[in-house]
Design brief:
5-stranded mixed β-sheet, 8 helices, two-stranded antiparallel sheet, 261 residues, alpha/beta, 9 strands, single chain
Length: 261
């Protein structure tokens, strides 16, 4: 019997060690069942929420060309293939219907058959459990983000610090501190805007002072960012309201009274 294998890890809290674990699970299954792996496909840093992944596309193309040599598509768990139960079941049914290839969940030791009612039910259950876990994890993440922003007043966005600030500290102790030179340019932009100076003039002045942001909306983006008055936008979560919430342990560049909304 011959098979192809597929492994995947996403970029949200997983690493290449996840691939190594999946490989070990699959290797144990194929060795025990005397199955030969003829090719392998691996997506690194890709979510399972859709099949728009480079190696899934290569896998499907390989199946179409070589399906007569393939008995199984082996994954460590079905959630490695997809976390969207509906689309995943449709894909697995199509692969078996069109090419006679059955999917294997190596961790469960299960070879699923979409034409057998009991096997189909168990396969669907594994996919649904993965979807349920994904929903719970996303709710936990969203709840944590809401608590950190709305209740603790932390700035937790990734990427570089907003213009006018720099990052200091790590983890929960990370804060934004003013960059003196950039903060001075921010104050100049607000002062000139509130005096009625046209934005194109402010942009020229800011550039002369060292403002390096480009783009037609660079000045507007600065003027409408509530962070400069010590607040941040927080997305609503479940029954908890969204909106502007104050940042704590934070020094605003602009006095909130003079900050336009």
């Amino acid at each position: 019997m011959k098979a192809i294998k597929y492994t995947r890890y996403s970029s949200d809290g997983q690493s290449s060690f996840s691939i190594e674990r999946q490989d070990l699970i699959i290797e144990n299954w194929v060795r025990y069942n005397k199955v030969e792996i003829i090719d392998a496909f691996k997506d690194e840093g890709h979510s399972a929420r859709s099949f728009d992944r480079p190696d899934v596309k290569k896998l499907i193309a390989f199946i179409k060309k070589n399906y007569r040599q393939i008995d199984y598509l082996v994954v460590a768990e079905l959630t490695r293939f997809s976390r969207e139960a509906g689309a995943a079941i449709t894909m697995v049914k199509q692969i078996q219907h069109d090419y006679g290839i059955r999917i294997v969940s190596a961790s469960r030791g299960a070879i699923y058959d979409v034409f057998d009612s009991s096997s189909y039910f168990m396969m669907g259950l594994e996919f649904l459990l993965g979807t349920s876990e994904n929903i719970k994890r996303q709710n936990d993440i969203n709840g944590g983000i809401y608590a950190a922003k709305a209740e603790k007043g932390r700035w937790i966005q990734g990427g570089p610090a907003p213009y006018g600030y720099r990052k200091q500290g790590t983890g929960e102790n990370r804060v934004l501190v003013q960059d003196p030179a950039e903060a001075a340019i921010i104050r100049h932009i607000y002062t000139r805007f509130l005096s009625g100076t046209p934005v194109y003039v402010i942009k020229t002045e800011a550039k002369a002072l060292g403002f390096k942001k480009t783009g037609n909306d660079a000045i507007h983006e600065i003027l409408k960012n509530p962070l400069y008055m010590g607040q941040q936008w927080v997305k609503a979560w479940k029954n908890h309201p969204g909106g502007l919430f104050p940042l704590k342990n934070f020094e605003p560049i602009i006095d909130p009274i003079t900050c336009p909304n």
